[in-house]
Task: structure prediction
Amino acid sequence: MKFTRSMVLVSNDPESMRRGAAEIFQSFHDELAAADLSEEVALSQIADSGRMDILPMVIIYPEASVYGPVKPEDVKRIVEEHLHKGRVVQDLLAPVRN
Result:
């Protein structure tokens, strides 16, 4: 039986896609596989984040951590620190909207 302990959502609206979200999604897929986390971490996409200022963005549940804007080179660190070690990557979190 598959046990999902976390879910990663990558924005895929047109602006996110223009800013590299497809590459970010693929990087998550590859990094999760390399870390042997594919069976424990679900990877999906989200169409409308409502936050144009932080695109492309990544939301990780169950913590509801919002990262953004995310660059492809950030993915390995998010997988290693947040998903493998359980530590939120504070400097990559999206700024709180006022």
